[in-house]
Give the backbone structure.
Amino acid sequence: MKRILLVLTAFSFSVFLLSFTGKNTAYLPKATIKTLVIDPGHGGIDPGARGSFSNEADVSLAVSLKFGKAIEKEFPDVKIVYTRTTDIMPGNKRTKDEGLRYRADLANSSGGDLFIAIHCNSAAPVRHKEFTGYKTGTVNVGKGKKKRKVAKKIPQYRHWTSPSAATGTETYIWALSKNDAKVNSVNQTEYFGEIDSTGSTALELPDPSDPAEKARMLIYAQQYFRKSLNLAEMVEKGFQAQGRVYRGGVKQRNDKGIWVLQATGMPSILVEIGFISNKEEEDYINSDKGQEEIVENLVNAFRSYKHKLESKTINTTP
Ligand SMILES: [Zn+2]
């Protein structure tokens, strides 16, 4: 009798287990966000992009801390992990690459469910060239004995630069592949020091021929891409609703500048909250009003994203 009972118990237990692993999602524990990793870009030895009176590291940190506080207030159950809370390179690392690696390792070891990096954008000054008239000079013509000097009109130009007019927000996710039709390639000439290469070879981009990297890219593709895209879209739409300049929506890249996004085993986005190279926008992202609006939008997006996750309305298949 005891043995039959034991067999029956084992059987019902396996049916119970199957109900968890099967297609019936009603029995699956609900997905949610328990740990949010907030990553203020740059810091310490790396001030990031410079504006006329502020730098990217400081502005990103201020907005990140305000964002974390707002999340804590509304979602006391969500654990916040900051990659830095002061003006240091995360983990007090000595290079940008080591800092990036530390950010990713910290996010992964804290069991983060979502990674949000906060940065400021910057655009190169525009170069100008204007013809101002001719100056009469002399040039050498002919060879040997026939060599002589002749008068010649030499065109004169004035060169100067002016700040780029680029403004607005951009939210990045890691691109699935460089050939992906959805990849929104960014005009290289428009960008400056910010999101571009860290300038060393210590951080390798994923090599699809390496089986371990391939597996990780597949996991990203299957589990995180849609979620990251979904959140990034909400962030961009929110900025648009706030009247910020629209720069074409969510952008996908897979260069070293956003290496950290694919190195974290969780959905991840990188938000460029505005152009520090534009005087007006530099004022805005430094102001209480500006920072409050940015934080409000990030919290709204977080709330919607969390709600969608909990109600399972995000399609996770790319
Ligand atoms: Zn940056």
